[in-house]
What we know:
Radius of gyration: 17 Å
Structural class: mainly alpha
Amino acid sequence: MHRRRRTALTVSAALLAASPLLSACGNEAHPGAAAVVGGQRIEVSTVQAEVKDVRTAQQASPQAAQLIKDSGQLGRVKLYDLIVDRVVQRAADDAGVTASRKEIQDARSVLVQQSGGQEQLAAMYLQQRGIAPDQLDDVVRRDVLVGKIAARLGASNSPEGQQKMNETFTAAARALDIDVNPRYGAWDDEKLELGSYKAPWITQVTKAEEPVETGA
């Protein structure tokens, strides 16, 4: 199972947390949508629910103040996650790969073992990736799919392999015709970014396995 490095949840653009209640998409044909991906809506309420789960988990952490401070653009981060879930699923469908429940459970068990326990795993994902405990399985599923796509493509730990992965996910994103509420930023198919935010969900999938990081 490939490991991810620590992800900073803050980005350089102005904090979107100042406008948490978004009533409509920039495209008036999709009122109330944070984004439309592959013709399917991602509701603002869905993004807000994801944010609420993370904030609740953060508030229960001994590092609550720092975690909340470091994740001011959490709405954008959670929308990004919801979008790339669909991008990865499209790429997986195109590659003919799936992730079974057993594969997800096995992958999670490995992560639990590597991180030193379930609580440590949950704390690490909350701190490093802005993931609430009840969102873990979705993220593990996505990571399993990304790894299987890389294997299917023969994308090795090399610049060529990385380029192949980037091209694959860019093609999937284009096929989905992603339309994002401008208050969350603009989606870029080429860079696979939402505004100025880009999580390392692609750039590290072909990296050699690294020790689990637990630092702040």
